[in-house]
Amino acid sequence: MKNLPKKIYLQVDPEKEYPEDFNDLSEVTWCIDRICDTDIEYVLKKNDHKKGEPELTKILRIVCEVNEVEIVAVKGRRRFKNLITAKREYGYLARKLTKKSLAEIGKKINRDHANVLYHNRIIKGWLEIKGYYLHKKFEMIEERLKI
Fold first, then answer.
1. Judgement on whether residues 38 and 102 belong to the same structural domain of the protein
2. What span, in angstroms and rounded, lies between the C-alpha atoms of 122 and 92?
3. Cα–Cα distance list, 54 to 18, 21, 44, 95 (Å)
4. Does residue 86 belong to any structural domain of this protein?
5. Fewer beta carbons below 10 Å: N end or C end of the chain?
């Protein structure tokens, strides 16, 4: 999206009753400048990835598409073989293609840094055994990430 303001203000009328949950608001008025002291400031979050570097979400989405599994299932606790394979491939590719920390990579699939390290070690072992097939699969995923 182009021409996004760096920050906006949600206009809140102090005399009006609002729902407790923000998602329950039916009408929201906002502007670029603060009008009242009760207006709530929202700051645009900067992208924390470098130009040319794929986002973790995109890597996860494409790995899940290729492995024909749901993202929600990969983030869950189930340990079916196809889910574990997708988790391992995601961890390996995320570490290879980004400069994110192991903790950040693992957080995306509800795992810790140790799991990401373990997944990398397993995939590197697989690359030695199933080399050609796995290399081709990763090349295809990396090609899809560039689009």
1. no
2. 9
3. 39, 33, 20, 11
4. yes
5. N
Q: By C-alpha distance, which of 146, 138, 145 is closest to 58? A: 145
- The amino acid at 135: H
Alpha-carbon span 64 to 141, nearest angstrom? 10
Paired sense of beta strands 30-31 and 40-43, if any: unpaired
Q: What is the pLDDT of residues 92-126, one digit of tens each?
A: 999 999 999 999 999 999 999 999 999 999 999 98
| Residue 2 resides in a domain | no
- Compute CA distances 117 → 59, 76, 83, 89, 121, whole Å: 17, 19, 17, 12, 6
Does 1 reside within a domain? Answer: no
**Domain limits for position 127:** 56-146
Domain count of the fold of the chain: 2
Q: Can you give the pTM of this predicted structure?
A: 0.63
Write out pLDDT tens, residues 73-90: 999 998 899 999 999 999
Q: Cα dist. 112→24, 40, 104, 108, 135 in Å?
A: 33, 35, 8, 9, 26
